[in-house]
Amino acid sequence: MVITDNLPPSVSFVSATGTGWTCAHASGVVTCNRSGAHAVGAPIPPVTLVATVNAAGGTITNSATIAPAAGGVADPVSSDNTALVNSTVVPGADVRIAQKTVVSAQPATAGDNVTFRIQPRNGGPAAAANAVVTDTLPAGWPFVSATGPNWACSAVGLAVACTRASFPVGATDDITVVATAPASAQVPPSGGTYTNTAGISSATPDPIPGNNSGSVNVQVRPDGADLRLAKTKTPNPVALGSNMVSSITVTNGGPRAATGPQRVVEVLSGETFVSATGTGWVCTVNGSVVVCDHPNTGGLAVNSALPVLRITTT
Q1: Are 173 and 287 found together in one domain?
Q2: Which among 188, 192, 116 is positioned nearest to 158, based on CA atoms?
Q3: CA nearest to 147, candidates 130, 135, 129, 158
Q4: Distance between alpha carbon 200 and the CA centroid of its chain, in Å?
Q5: What does residue 302 show for φ and ψ, rounded to 5 degrees?
Q6: What is the distance between the alpha carbons of residues 268 and 255, in angstroms, rounded to a whole number?
Q7: Fewer CB within 10 Å, N or C, the chain?
Q8: Confidence band (pLDDT; 50, 70, 90) for 176?
Q9: Domain count, the chain
Q10: Do 49 and 117 share a structural domain?
């Protein structure tokens, strides 16, 4: 048997499938063939035809006809072989979240405000009625504010909502949401990643709902000065009884400047202290423990390092 479906001019073919059916499309005509015997009264698997409506409005009519394939059993009553369906086309509004970004500094510092930018858009073809943009903040992120031209924004707890009665096609009214990053006690020592997702909907039918949300990740690091120490030993290998030098560098990974004196403690193992050098460093030795202090008078800025400390041992 053969099903023939003549698509209306305002419709574009996407796909046609059905169990046991083989379908093809050419110039707006979909043809589906199914071989084999079909018992009287036995159900025949349906054909699902998917197409895109290109009309801006009105009514479209689609017709499908079934007939025996060549060589098949004749159909004595062909008057019931064609079915019509009328579909009313309502102009839709392809609302979407074009982009969700963090516009404040990254990585963010625990306890600081973070600013998110949401870019809602309407690809049309119609204006979107009663558009709503929602943004559910991550747990532990207190709401601060939400604003956007022609949007009315409010929040209940972590749920932010911005609404407007009509969202025109092509409008570029972005929304800015400000929230406070979690406190240091809630952030892992090495920092954490948090995801913020925004979505949009409206009362107008949306032909492409798959683009209605957007997410962004934001890095948060604990507040304070993340002091880091790097150490090398030369020469390596070293001859028995010869001197070797431990070069120690102290850096500040931020996010704040490190203030006050800084101390490095070196515990010797199988070595004997010989000397210590480095601008500003003062070292004392007590047995196998070497304690070196630096006044850090001007403070250690983020991503900066103190003068290299070199401890010579034998």
Answers
A1: no
A2: 116
A3: 135
A4: 15
A5: -60, 135
A6: 32
A7: C
A8: very high
A9: 3
A10: no
